[in-house]
């Protein structure tokens, strides 16, 4: 039988009354355990805490972490023992002792062994490495496993890349050699995030989450609400497929909100996580090879963002995979369903479907329509290219005219009807739609306008903004006041995500649900 990974909320005890309230709130939010960090507590404080009957009902881990292992307890072994003894009276489910304490502090180890079996908390033997990943984490696991009293092996180290996080997850495979042990293996920091978000799939005994606004006790601890609502940690199973967003930075992306909500709604056994990865092609290639080779991970697909869209295209070609759709040298999606990877780009088709839905047009309606595109960067190039393919007449307006001219020339060379003009010449009198592809008006500069307020705009003109934060940009409010048909950037975001979801899972995307999830993630 598979048991769910539990979620522990760490609380550094400092003010018993306030901390008791935090513990109760954590349980309400879905915590299964509280890790009471008693590094700075006194026996009297412990008594005050457990005088609260609500606190006494919550399963808990007792930890008094010394400074030499990254904690805050600065006293000697005997005063630590006294604190542990005072706290054990309140029946913790687990006692976390550092492996170094177990082997190097006989009074504490002796005290634990002297406890009657039914009063003994389950022993977590832990090892923390804040500088970097230790040389051989499996050796540490074997050293912990050598102590028959240990019930849980906990190893935490700071990750310098995704590969370190995979090393942490691989320890769950090594753990199989020790059937008496459960494991908690954590790669700390931003790069270690999958060691926490995939903890359920790998069968961790528990993992740590913090309350919104609460303090963490180690770098990289996610919010408990994210673990439960986004990553569905307690529902994860070992055979679930894994998808994710690779790039850097990825911490702000709402793709996990959208894709996990969609998988949940569709009953699809999978989870979508973040793979933070800066760097060049070689780092990208190495990481992808490692992710694909991991037998327990079941990586099935990736969304790709800055700085790897070109690297992803190169990777698929180098692996003799297939690029679906027009090859523009950059992709935002890789599928790993067969022996060879498949690359595709859903950005521009996602933008196109948002445009068609919002305007009430079919693809056939596009032929001969005049579109004004503002901007000549990546988003503009993708949309201009797909609109040219559908027979639109395009005018590309850009601050940097040579850039717009180069894009227009490229589209003309493929048979498109396209001209480039300086942004100052913007004129919308005969356009069917204007598509805004610059960051002007994006959070936090929400009062900025990419076009002059005084620009004439015919009622009924379609105005699409690619910016999705804020949802209603100043441009869209301006255009609404003039009777335009307005399309929000969030629809393009959801459009590309929905196409990705369909490519990942083969299922129809629940688009409205993905939009709601994206907006919740963006706080809109
Ligand atoms: P990009 O490649 O950096 O291009 C930026 C474009 O904006 C360039 O044409 C640039 O003009 C222009 N620009 C920048 N600052 C400007 C300013 N102050 N005044 C006038 N023009 C300015 O960026 P991108 O990837 O195309 O992204 C552009 C926008 O699209 C962003 O706001 C992004 O949020 C949005 N986007 C949305 C989605 C979605 O799913 N909704 C997807 C992709 C992108 P120069 O050439 O003169 O520098």
Strand order across the largest sheet: 7-6-5-4-3-2-1-8
Q: Give the structural class.
A: alpha/beta
Bound molecules: NADP nicotinamide-adenine-dinucleotide phosphate
CATH superfamily of the largest domain: Aldolase class I
What is the rounded distance between the termini?
41 Å
Radius of gyration: 27 Å
CATH third-tier fold name of the largest domain: TIM Barrel
Number of domains: 3
Relative strand content: 15-25%
User: Treating each run of at least 4 consecutive H or I residues as one helix, how many helices?
Assistant: 20
Number of strands: 20
The geometry reads as: elongated
User: What proportion of the residues is helical, as a percent range?
Assistant: 25-40%
Output the CATH class name of the largest domain: Alpha Beta
CATH architecture of the largest domain: Alpha-Beta Barrel
* Major sheet size, sense and barrel closure: 8 strands, parallel
Low-confidence stretches: none
The overall pLDDT average reads 96
State the main characteristics.
524 residues; alpha/beta; TIM Barrel; Rossmann fold; 6-stranded mixed sheet; 20 strands; binds NADP nicotinamide-adenine-dinucleotide phosphate
Describe the fold and architecture.
This protein has 524 residues and is α/β, with parallel strands linked by helices. The chain has 3 domains: 6-238, TIM Barrel (Alpha-Beta Barrel), CATH 3.20.20.70; 244-345, Leucine Dehydrogenase, chain A, domain 1 (Rossmann fold), CATH 3.40.50.10860; 348-487, Rossmann fold. The chain has helices spanning 16-28, 43-50, 53-56, 77-88, 99-104, 106-114, 137-145, 162-174, 194-197, 199-202, 224-230, 255-266, 281-293, 309-318, 347-359, 378-389, 401-413, 474-481, 489-505, 511-522; strands spanning 6-12, 33-37, 60-63, 94-98, 122-129, 150-158, 182-188, 206-208, 241-247, 270-276, 299-304, 322-323, 333-335, 342-344, 370-374, 393-398, 417-422, 433-436, 462-465, 485-487. The strands form 3 sheets. An 8-stranded parallel beta sheet has the order 7-6-5-4-3-2-1-8. It has a 6-stranded mixed beta sheet with strand order 10-9-11-13-14-12, with helices on both faces. Strand 13 (333-335) and strand 14 form a beta hairpin. Helix 15 (347-359) packs across helix 16 (378-389), helix 15 (347-359) packs across helix 19 and helix 19 crosses helix 20. The protein is elongated, with a radius of gyration of 27 Å. Residues 347, 375-380, 398-400, 403, 437-440, 442, 466-468, 489, 492-493, 496 line the site of NADP nicotinamide-adenine-dinucleotide phosphate (NAP).
